[in-house]
Design goal:
The complex is a heterodimer. By secondary structure, chain A is α/β, with parallel strands linked by helices. Chain A contains 15 helices and eleven strands. Chain A is globular, with a radius of gyration of 20 Å. Classes of the chains: A alpha/beta, B mainly beta.
Amino acid sequence: MSDDKRVAVLGVGMHPWGKWGRNFVEYGLTAARAALADAGLSWGDVQFVSGADTIRNGYPGYVAGATFAQALGWTGARVASSYAACASGATAVAAARAQILAGLCDVALVVGADTTPKGFFAPVGGDRKDDPDWLRFHLLGATNPTYFALYARRRMELFGATENDFAAVKVKNARHGLANPNARYRAEVTTDEVLASPMVADPLRLLEICATSDGGAALVLSSTDFARRHAGSSGLLTIPAVSTVTPRFPQTVIEMPNFATDSAVTVDGAMGSGFRHSIAHAAYEEAGIGPEDVDVAEVYDLSSALELDWYEDIGLCKEGEGERLLRDGDTAVGGRIPVNPSGGLSCFGEAIPAQAIAQVCEIVWQLRGQAQGRQVDGARVGVTANQGLFGHGSSVVVTK
Amino acid sequence: MAPTKSAVPAVDGWFTTEGSPTLLGSRCRGCGTYAFPRESYFCRNPACDSQEFEDVALSGRGTIWSYTDARYQPPPPYRAADPYEPFCIAAVELAVEKMVVMGQVVGGVGVDDLSVGTEVELVTDVLYEDDDHRYLVWKWRPLASGTDNGGADV
């Protein structure tokens, strides 16, 4: 990929994840100000504001870009808001990247923040019998962990994954997150503690399912020309790829919030399988790299078991080899290819519109050598991967 | 129990309740692709521009692709029994339609009774009740369970 398809990451910032119970705008502003300070720029330098929406915080959440812009003080900047379920943050990054690459702006601010309710994510209220997300709760009682558990059980039956493997992912990520000041859960857990936690959706236990969190994350992106003028070429970090592809028909793996998969009677199912795989590989292709080039990865561990699926989907190993990678310690900090050095969703919980942005923040800190207490030595290429409802997912590549 | 509480589907047009219950799907007249719930406007096959569909009864038997249970009460709009009773959920592969369809598993069946590949059949069963009606939904019942645990006769 030619250099002019890259955008520079000048600044990153976060509001710590937690259950703070305050307005999401506060978290977004804290993150935005931190990212601007990190970039050495002021709010007035921003020409495009790209907000990632939250659907649980009323109208201001649906127009997050404008909400953050107003809170920072109207400056006449261009503005847009994106909603793409769990990939909303990456879609906001993609919008900013496109504006920059089109020459419509030099400096863009990407912000996502959320305030979440306690417990299971439930559908938006009302009596909505034409909304599959509403219907799956009503007719099946199928929560998000239901789907995570279907994948986990399938791994056990197909690849011999064990409850100990799933627990080991949690133990690893808990250790990673210990020193991360933005992580919500910073405590070591043992395999025994994981396996003693209550079963939620067999075979997944409470400590293996990601919580719902409040939090905010922001990025300052710019053209590479602007970045060189502003900060010089030394140590410049760029984003060469943002993947936000849809699945391909027929999608033969059951996905939230659907009742059924596509039918594979007319088109070979193998052609359309592996949505998670295609999300990451579209990013690799756009960046002109392969999984062998990756030094560090942040993947969407909505459950401990799902992290093992991601190892294979982002190409760190072949299908069915995820357990071996984990057991060999390859994916722990200090191992061959560390995954979720931030602590992942396991230590953060999910603040939906902020989460895909937070993944990029962590990769940036890793590539700068600023990930204190969880640093992956010599990391030069990082990848994020994420997936949510309704065929949304994302993958972002960051390179030094 | 109220003597004449009538049983009605919890959702219209997704399954039949007469005789041997079946899921109601659609089949594209252009390319033959099945869908559940039914499609009426567009075919999901991107290579097909047909807008004509026939209603079809989906296979009443399949094999389990994967399964889990719901140990905690799901949030509304699920209407849980009081006291709450955990239930299993299965994703079931239909051979003819080459698709996977989710459903609750009938009561009395635990995850230890299930495995990938277990054969199941479709039944209807009560999802919840109010003062006037019992609301029915489709559920999967293991063929070899050998237990008479609900379903079919509502």
